[in-house]
Amino acid sequence: MRERKKQATREALRAAALRLAVERGPDQVRVEDIAEAAGVSPRTYNNYFASREQAIVSAVTADRESRIAAAVAARPAEVRLADAVTGAVVEQLTGTGEHDPEALLLITTRPALRDAFLDTTAGIEGPLAAAISARAPGVEAPTARVLAASVAAAVRIALETWLHPTGSTDGLVVPTGPLPTTSAQPCPPSPHPSTQPSTPDQNRPSCQRRSR
Question: What is the pLDDT of residues 184-198, one digit of tens each?
C-alpha cells in the first residue's frame, strides 16, 4: 500500500512537471508550482526529485530502467543473453512511450533538460544487473554489474549522438532489419539528395529516421 502511494505521488509530480513545462516553458516553472499542481508540499517533492529538470524528464522516460529489466526477463529462455539485452534496450528506446513529439521537442531544445535526460541512463545499471543475474545464474554479481554498466554507457552514447548528431542526420535514427546485425553497426549519415545513389548499397545497414 505504501509503495503504491509513493508511486502514485511520483507519477503525479512528473505529470504536473511536464504539463506545466509545456504550458509555460520550463524556465517559468518552479518546484513550488509543480508541488502545488500535484497536491503535495515542496518538501515532499524534494523526496522524489532533485530538480525541476529531473521531474520533467522523468515524465518522458517513465521508469525506463525497470521497463528494460522487465523486457530482458520476458525474453524466451532460448534467446542469448546478449540478444535479450540488446532487444530489450532497442525495444524500449524506439517504442512510442518516450517519443511524445511535444515533450521530446522540449527536451531537445533546452540544454538543462538534455543533460538531465542523458543522466537518466545511469539508472539502467541496477535493475539491468539484477535482470542479467536472474537470467544467467552463472554470471557473478560483479560481472553482471560491469555488463549492465556497459549497456548504460552505450545507451548514453547513443542518446548523445541523437541529441548532438554529426553529419547531416535529420532525426532519431532507428536501425531496422536483423537486430543482431544492425544493432552492432552505426547508421550512416543521411546522404544529400544530390549524392544519394539510385541503387541502395546492400552492405549498408538499413535505418529508419523518425522526425524529432
Answer: 444 443 344 444 444
